[in-house]
What does this fold into?
Amino acid sequence: MSGLAATIEATALETPGVVGLYRAGSTVVKIISAATDRLAPEEDTVSRVVVTETDEGAEVELAIAVGSSLGAVEIAQAVRDRVRELFAADGRSVFIRLTVVHVTGDR
Amino acid sequence: MNDGRLPIGLDPGDLDGHTIEELTDYLDAGRTPTDLSIEESPGCVLALDALERLRALTPELIARDEAAEPEPDAGWIQSILSGIAMDARSGRRIPLAAPDEWSDLAITEGAVRGLIRAAENVFPGILIGRCRLHGDVTDQDAVIGVEVEVSVPFGEPIAQLAERLREEIAQRLSAHTRLAVEAIDITVHDITHWAEGAR
It folds into this structure.
């Protein structure tokens, strides 16, 4: 996993309300990624975040799970802002596609 | 079931290459050792949630059988099983904010259905079966409707229970989405005599 992807993952997971991170991307990408994960050494795990370099900067795709105590909208916006700040610190722009895929239950 | 789909209507892609049988075995093993290919798959996690709900239901069904009560409506059971399939599907992407030049924030339809289903946890004895979102949920300006089918416990005033469930679902949707919900239609599909301690 690249250092940038790892930093984005950590940033997302440190955001209050985020309780998990899932593999982003299409189903095909996720299946291939999962298979690669099983073959890869443990210390070189595949990132759950998709980072694509573009002419304008980068595109980041994330899929997160959120807790039910905070609103998913506010949590998603907070993750977006934190990731944006990461790139802004390097003077880079970023497009963030973030999807909440699970709101954890209260069982 | 010869159309390539799994028995309860799941496509392999819904579970990122896993099968419902694998998930059942994984639950049986107490979700250990942790399988990241399952735990990091939204479809798998939503299906695991649904399977756990079904497991909570199973003792009641056994108790009902032992008490020689009439068999539950097969259609109702099927709706619960279908619910697992529905929950596992991510479905449509529902905007959480107006997309702008730099971001696109959304929640999956599967996550919203799971959110609605979890409302049953607030009301002992209530089970939510089929759950549908009507309308173009991908349009943040659209007005949408919610339809759920429920089983309610015997002895509770149904109208009051339905109203409280409606309020709970509305509160959850308001807290976690920007959906403009016009109506939450609740159909009571079954009235259940719960066995002592079953729920």
User: Anything to note?
Assistant: Chain A touches chain B through 37 residues (CB under 8 Å).
